[in-house]
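seq:
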Amino acid sequence: MKRIVAICLCLLLAAPLLTACGNQEELQDGYYTAQMAEFSHGWKEYITILVKGGSIVSVEYNAENASGFIKSWDNTYMQTMLHANGTYPNAYTRYYANQLLEGQGKGGIDAVTGASSSHGTFQMLAQAVLEQARKGDSSIVIVEASH
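struct:
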């Protein structure tokens, strides 16, 4: 009987430690944002996610210029990029965001032909925003471009 009590006591004492370790990988509920440190070609890309119940429920991926205008709203830019690259911001930003949402940050993100630069940036931002969500840190994380 003493042995059973000792085992139960050990399990009770160890449970909070095991729970704390498990929470290191779980996403904490809240809004999280990661943005690039610098503008690239006049745009600064960012990701904002909303986590509820430990799952990502929404993802916004876009870019803004110095005045705060959103890249996927720029019809002139869209037409230019569509003719030159075969894609445009409103298409590839939704595609990348949807992959992050569907994979819950656990799978890879497939690149869109014509938006490979944004693919690399998206992956850096996604990694940073997921780390913030694991920590439960809702401050905006600034990501430096790797050269």
